[in-house]
Design goal:
Distance between the termini: 69 Å
Number of helices: 10
Structural class: alpha/beta
Strand content: 5-15%
Shape: globular
Largest sheet: 6 strands, mixed
Strand order of the largest sheet: 1-4-3-2-5-6
Radius of gyration: 21 Å
Number of strands: 6
Length: 251
């Protein structure tokens, strides 16, 4: 049961549901995998298995005007949606879970929302409980722990040179995809919480891995200063060495 949230009244009801539950999974859809370049397109939330809500805030007009989706007379604007979401997302008493939530933290902060109350990152929990696994992305983890194959992002945006950004994805398809991510993340949280305790990893998560989420997010947001002169010198040195090696090879 995945629902598209298009009015202020609908969003208020969703917010009340999340607040009443005391915890929920949150996920963002954006225009880039780089959080410092990504523009926020939508937010999805879930606090119950097989349910999810999607709030579009940055789709193109063409993506919003799709068959099967009747837009309200007064659709929710980006500013209205973010203003309504702010008290919930910034409330430390309402727990939030996410998969690679550092990404969402940065994206939301750049959109003017400070994500507080983070209690679990299912990607980190997966890494701690199964460090030998090669990949810990949501698709792989969902398939392994829930036996559920997620909708591939390529089905929505395409591949290679013909790929589009998520803001061009029809809002009905975006709703299914994004809500599924939040739904699966919520269910994975119920799987990993007991696993961390059973395997004696809760302290490692609480004292080392979890505090690093915000530290790394701040590092990514601040960036790293480099000395352009030094790197220019290195480039010239490497090119000179390369030319010498080429000469030796031809000889």
């Amino acid at each position: 049961d995945y629902q598209l949230v298009l009015t202020a009244d609908e969003l208020q009801r969703v917010i009340e549901e999340m607040r009443a539950n005391g915890a929920f999974a949150v996920d963002t859809e954006t225009t880039s995998t780089d959080p410092m370049r990504a523009e926020l397109v939508g937010v999805s939330m879930s606090c119950k298995g097989n349910t999810g809500y999607y709030i579009p805030v940055g789709h193109t007009a063409e993506a919003m005007a799709v068959l099967g989706v009747k837009l309200p007379e007064k659709p929710l604007t980006r500013e209205e949606a973010l203003d309504l979401l702010r008290p919930l997302l910034e409330d430390p008493k309402v727990e939030k879970v996410g998969h690679n939530i550092k990404y969402d933290l940065i994206v939301l902060e750049r959109a003017g929302l400070k994500l507080e109350g983070i209690s679990l990152d299912t990607m980190i929990a997966c890494y701690l409980t199964d460090p030998s696994r090669l990949r810990h992305n949501l698709d792989e983890v969902s398939l392994h722990y829930l036996n559920r194959k997620l909708i591939p992002i390529s089905d929505l945006i395409g591949k290679g040179s013909k790929a589009v950004t998520f803001d061009s994805v029809p809002v009905d398809s975006a709703c299914t995809y994004a809500s599924e991510d939040a739904d699966v993340t919520w269910r994975l949280a119920q799987t990993f919480r007991p696993l961390l305790r059973e395997r004696g990893l809760q302290a490692l998560y609480d004292e080392v891995e979890f505090p690093l989420i915000r530290v790394l997010a701040r590092m990514e947001q601040a960036g790293i200063a480099i000395d352009n002169g030094i790197f220019e010198g290195l480039r010239e040195e490497v090119e000179k060495r390369l030319r010498a090696l080429e000469y030796e090879i031809f000889e």
